[in-house]
Every structure is written in C-alpha cells, then in structure tokens.
C-alpha cells in the first residue's frame, strides 16, 4: 500500500512539473506563491489519480472475488 501511494505521488509530481514547465502564463513575482501553487496542484492531481486508481482496484477486487 505504501509503495502504491508513493508511486501515485511520484506520478502526480511529474505531471505537475511538466504542466508548470509547459505553462505559458506570466509567473507570479512572489516565489512563495509559486511554491504554494505548485504543491496545491500536486495535491489536486494526486487526489484525482488516487480516486481513479483505488476505485479501479476496489472494483477489480470485488469482480474477481464474485
């Protein structure tokens, strides 16, 4: 379980990093705000990926059990 969560967090971190690099908007001059936006976006992406992954794993487990 811990390995799954760390893997999902790594995937979220990579997706967020790619998104920040590819973003063409003007950056905030405040570095603290940039860190806040980065970590909040990582949290949102991690939450969405986790919901999808654990829902799929739960459904797969219940279907195979039946």
Helix content: over 70%
Total DSSP helices: 2
DSSP strand tally: 0
Mean pLDDT: 91
Decide which structural class fits the backbone: mainly alpha
The H/E string reads HH
Distance between the termini: 23 Å
> In terms of per-residue confidence, which ranges show pLDDT below 50 for 5 or more consecutive residues?
none
The dominant shape is elongated
Major sheet attributes: none
Integer-rounded radius of gyration: 16 Å
Beta-strand percentage range: under 5%
Explain what you see.
This protein has 2 helices and no strands. The chain has helices at 2-22, 31-65. The chain starts with a helix and ends with a helix. By secondary structure, the protein is mainly alpha-helical.
Task: Please sum up the structure shown.
With 66 residues, the protein is mostly helical. It contains two helices and no strands. It has helices at residues 2-22, 31-65.
